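Example record

The entry below shows one chain as it appears in the dataset: sequence first, then C-alpha cells.
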Amino acid sequence: MSADPWLVVGLGNPGPSYAGNRHNAGFMVLDVLAARAGGRFRSHRARADVLEGRLAGARAVLAKPRSFMNESGGPVKGLRDFYKVPVERLIVVHDELDVPFGAVRLKLGGGDNGHNGLRSITKSLGSGEYLRVRFGVGRPPGRMDAAAFVLRDFSAAERKDLDLEVDRAADAVEALVSQGLAAAQNVFHAG
C-alpha cells in the first residue's frame, strides 16, 4: 500500500454557462465523488477547487481545475507537485467522443486524441502515462463540428440516463483506486 495520495482530476470549463455541457462530464463525476466523500471543494492556490479525503479507503485529493479546459495542465501540474503525487497515481476523468454515450472506458497513457485538456496536461507533466476515465459522449451528429458538440448540453434523451452514467463513472474511479486498472477494466468494459 502506497502512502502517496491519489490525485483525481475532473476536466471541465468553469462557470454556470458550461455546467451541463458534454465537455463538463469530468466535473459532474467529481461532484458525485465529493458527495460520496462527504466533503466540499475548497479553493487551492494551484488554480483548482480541491477536496482532500478518502476514496475507496485510500487517501485522495479530488480536484476541478478553475482554468478553461485547454489550460488544465498548469493546475494539474501545480497540484501534483504540491501533493507530491507520482504520475501513476493521477486519474483524469474526461469526456470522450470515441466512446458511445453510456459507456465508460479506463486506460493508462496514450495520446490526447484531439482532447485539448489531455494535451495540456500531458505537455505540463511531460508524460501521458496517467490513468484516464473516459466518459462516453458519442460522436456529433451529421457534420457538426466536434468542438461545438462538446460545448453543448446533453440531449433530453441523454439527460434521462445522465445521473446513472455519472454514477457509473464515479464507481469506475473508485474501482481504479481499490482494485487497479486490469480488474476495473474487467468490470467496466464488460458491457
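Notes for this example: The chain has a mean pLDDT of 95. The two ends are 30 Å apart (CA to CA).
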